[in-house]
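Practice problem: predict the structure.
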Amino acid sequence: MLSSIEYQNIKEESVQGRYVVMEQIELILSRLPEEFTIEEIGYSVKNKSIKSVTVGGGSRKILMWSQMHGNESTTTKAVLDLLNFLQQDTQEVVEIKNKCTIKIIPILNPDGAFAYTRINANEVDLNRDAQNRSQPESVVLRKVYDSFKPNYCLNLHDQRTIFNVGNTNKPATVSFLAPAHDSERNISKSRAISMQLIVAMNEELQKVIPGQVGRYDDGFNSNCVGDAFQMLNTPTILFESGHYPEDYQREQTRKYIFISLVKVLGVISSNSVQEYKLKEYSKIPENGKLFFDILILNAEKLNSHIKTKKDIGILFKETLKGTNLEFVPYIDKMGDLKNNFFGHMTYDCEKEEELMNLNKLPFIDEILKNIV
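Answer:
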């Protein structure tokens, strides 16, 4: 596993934060050495170029794509770090490139990335378009899948700050899923391989973020791309980048996604997937949805309009203003929350110091106006 110092030498420092667009990616791709093959694989609804980068010459083919949802950029940053890693002259990198051919689509939905929205320019969720393929971006991905014929697929996403691990107060910093291939959620050969690869990545991540890895819900939907590719007997893994404490820009989380990518490539290149026990997959706790960005306890001490003992759960709405992303707070729930929910930031109004700190928040007056 890479040390923090080694990672800092590999991290693509030119791209940080949550707003990541195609123009940034194209600049980085233009600087890659000749062994990286850059292809224009299609166009978005608004005629933005969609590109792929391919490296390696091995028989084990791995396809990965990021920003299918335009506002889910953490894995894109990790992919850029991976491209830097794959330029290193180390035994591990040489082995990966000798045994594997890796094709990466850094941004599948460039229109959504530019607008910082989940959907594409036609307001379609591309991850619900696997069967109809009504959108040009969906057609691009399927054409690449059909022509490249991958042995493995990595479907790279972000998840909201609401997710925790199991019933614990640990955020789901990284979550994985081996998508189902049928409504009964049976374990096919390809799904079993997906599970074993997740076990390998979880084992690695527990060394650096113990208790902060979750398992995403495996409800079957053939319109989801991961399920669709699993139905075609290709081992497919869903990656979900989540919250790390005080890391709303997800610069820490990108590191853990990068570590996961390096691990899964290493396992595939060394053909060691069978070393990881299938039964360990189900031991990864399922995600809960028990977090607020801010949890205010005993809010009746804060606002005279609140006549009974109540707590307030606040979430942030990610709002693009120009090219800046702002986190705009809104009240999601009120009631007796303290025994059932957690806060990434928690303020108990019965504690004088916490009440003082809460009153210093720049948006608290606006929040209180919405309490009637």
